[in-house]
Design goal:
The protein folds into four domains: 100 residues, Rossmann fold (3-Layer(aba) Sandwich), CATH 3.40.50; 70 residues, Dna Ligase, domain 1 (2-Layer Sandwich); 246 residues, D-amino Acid Aminotransferase, Chain A, domain 1 (2-Layer Sandwich), CATH 3.30.470; 45 residues. It is built from 18 helices and 22 strands. The strands form six sheets. Strands 13-12-9-10-11-14-21-19 form an eight-stranded antiparallel sheet, with helices on both faces. The longest helix is centred in the last third of the chain and has 24 residues. The radius of gyration is 24 Å and the shape is globular.
């Protein structure tokens, strides 16, 4: 057991800043690494030291193991915290840190590799009696045999890449005639995304909900579950809104899933923070989906309902200490919601919306937490994930947390790029979400650009006013200008009345 004096954070943006803040609270020195465009980023300015590691492309900076290791050596860092993304689930990086006598604040390489290979993970979970959807237990080798299995479990089936994640290498096959083409498409995408075209098939669940359990384990055999999160609001199989706890779990089902999550962690001899992800079907049967061997993006909602600092626990465990809590001491209270504020255009299929943040004024007040890695005046580029911030609210119950989130979203001011704020408002006021009766199909089932416009008449009015003013300006006629002036006053009065009513 050894206490760290200096920790290098091998990441950028809000998660790097998040880790640095906890390190400061623990009295530990920090080292930031940065690419050329991140030279003046908040995480760099907040760290005690910083090291330039390359140009904008992550393949030449944040993903280069040699550069990260050298930065740790040059600054005398005892340990490296990988955050999430980049090298956080890279078994080679974890192994290299240990070879260089630098502590990797995360699981051992073996666990990362086992759980990163979805077919190997399924096989391991099967032995640990953790339920998973019917399908192939191993990678797909014989397409005729796979067709027989698909016939047995029934269509639709899901073809999934054995490596990687993020929705890549995944295809829903609705009928037998589409099976071979679905396999071919999934393998091709998996090969391009991960350099690995292995796939497997499983039963596609009806009305699935994405529910995950936070776990924390130490080197002394102690494993805790730190309750659950609901992550079903997704676009392109990637999360946008999360909440904790999941509103549909009964105490009995929560207990059963928590046990399965802890069993899964023990099966892989896990150490550190991790997340066991499940799918829950319409009949409340749950199935193992995958394990994320790192801190999750959405970890703040768990911190809000439990009062625990997960990064502090990660560091404690990495120092070789025992977890300071017994399972019965881990309790939850209230409800928390997280909205990921992305620089994306929800009216244009959530395509990235780059630009300079000419205004970035975050909400505040009771029960509001904002984790952001960018500041006003910074540029949102295509080089990295388009997340601007994670906005979280905490309330006495679910309804309170949702109302508080809507208030915070109204307060949030961002100019310079389009964001997911209108989409988040749409979701949070939709009957399916407010009732708790929703699943991972929310976006295709309920959302469209037209519905978003219809849900925000004020936005439509402002756009119509802007178009009217532009037309009058183009005409350039004095009479029209005068009319435009009067029309503007009328429209402004109408706008203000509408605003007051809201």
């Amino acid at each position: 057991m050894s206490e760290f004096n200096k920790i290098l954070v091998a990441n950028r943006g809000e998660i790097a800043l998040r880790v640095i803040r906890t390190c400061k609270e623990l009295g530990k020195k920090t080292v930031a690494v940065y690419s050329t465009p991140d030279a003046d980023a908040p995480h760099v300015l907040q760290a005690d030291e910083s090291v330039h590691i390359g140009p904008a492309a992550s393949s030449e900076s944040y993903l280069v193991i040699d550069k990260i290791i050298q930065a740790a050596k040059d600054t005398g860092a005892d340990a490296i915290h990988p955050g999430y993304g980049f090298l956080s689930e890279n078994g080679n990086f974890s192994e290299r840190c240990r070879e260089e006598d630098i502590i990797f604040i995360g699981p051992r390489a073996k666990a990362i590799r086992l759980m990163g290979d979805k077919t190997a993970a399924r096989e391991l979970m099967s032995k640990a009696d953790v339920p998973f959807p019917p399908g192939t237990k191993e990678e797909l080798k014989d397409i005729e045999e796979a067709e027989k299995i698909a016939d047995e479990i029934g269509y639709p089936v899901l073809v999934k890449a054995a490596a990687g994640g993020g929705g890549k290498g995944m295809r829903i096959v609705d009928k037998k005639e589409e099976f071979k083409s679905g396999i071919k498409a999934a393998k091709s995408e998996a090969r391009n995304a991960f350099g690995d075209d292995r796939v497997y098939i499983e039963k596609y669940l009806v009305e699935p909900r994405h529910v995950e359990f936070q776990i924390m384990a130490d080197e002394h055999g102690n494993v805790l579950h730190i309750y659950d999160r609901e992550c079903s609001i997704q676009r392109r199989h990637q999360k946008v809104i999360e909440e904790a706890p999941c509103s549909i779990l009964t105490p009995e089902l929560r207990s059963e899933m928590a046990k399965a999550a802890k069993d899964a962690a023990r099966a892989v001899d896990y150490v550190g923070a991790g997340t066991i992800e499940f799918l829950v079907d319409a009949d409340r049967n749950f199935y193992f989906l995958e394990m994320n061997t790192r801190l999750q993006v959405e970890h703040p909602v768990t911190e809000l309902i439990t009062g625990l600092d997960l990064v502090a626990l990660q560091i404690l465990v990495a120092e070789g200490e025992e977890l300071p809590l017994e399972q019965e001491e881990v309790t939850m209270e209230g409800h928390a919601v997280e909205c990921r504020i992305y620089a994306e255009d929800p009216r244009d299929n959530f395509l990235p919306s780059t630009g300079t943040l000419t205004k970035h004024r975050i909400p505040s007040g009771n029960g509001v937490r904002v984790d952001s890695g960018v500041e006003e005046g910074q540029e949102i580029t295509i080089n990295y994930d388009p997340m601007i911030s994670k906005l979280c609210t905490y309330g006495n119950d679910r309804q309170h947390a949702i109302k508080r989130m809507l208030r915070a979203l109204d307060e949030y001011e961002i100019s310079g790029c389009r964001t997911t704020i209108p989409f988040c408002k749409y979701v949070l006021t939709h009957e399916s979400f407010t009732s708790g009766d929703y699943d991972t199909h929310f976006v295709p089932d309920y959302f469209s650009a037209q519905k978003l416009d219809a849900a925000d008449p004020l936005d439509d009015e402002v756009k119509a006013l802007a178009a009217s003013l532009l037309k009058l300006e183009d005409e350039g006629e004095e009479e029209s200008q005068e009319l435009g002036h009067n029309s503007t006053n009328g429209a402004h009065s109408k706008w203000w009345k509408h605003r007051k009513q809201k």
